[in-house]
Amino acid sequence: xxxxxxxxxxxxxxxxxxxxxxxxxxxxxxxxxxxxxxxxxxxxxxxxxxxxxxxxxxxxxxxxxxxxxxxxxxxxxxxxxxxxxxxxxxxxxxxxxxxxxxxxxxxxxxxxxxxxx
Length: 117
Known about the structure:
This protein is α/β, with parallel strands linked by helices.
């Protein structure tokens, strides 16, 4: 009986989908063409949101993203309460062909480091 071993090497040039990358988010938000998306619930958003953020819940992302970011090369910065929903949203946007999607993590952590837009 033969045993087969498979070696899988993954090389990335940026953040792996799901990883929180606040420095990249802050840098992207300094660009005039960047888009900031809050993927929290309506109630969470009503309790406070980052200036300039557009709220899109994850289940509506595929149908609404083109109205906010029609160019798939637009830098898209996502945040939620903890980083989990923004991670899933990042994966979804990448599946849709968006090339510059950044998971900025949680609102509370992010609001202290994001400059006013």
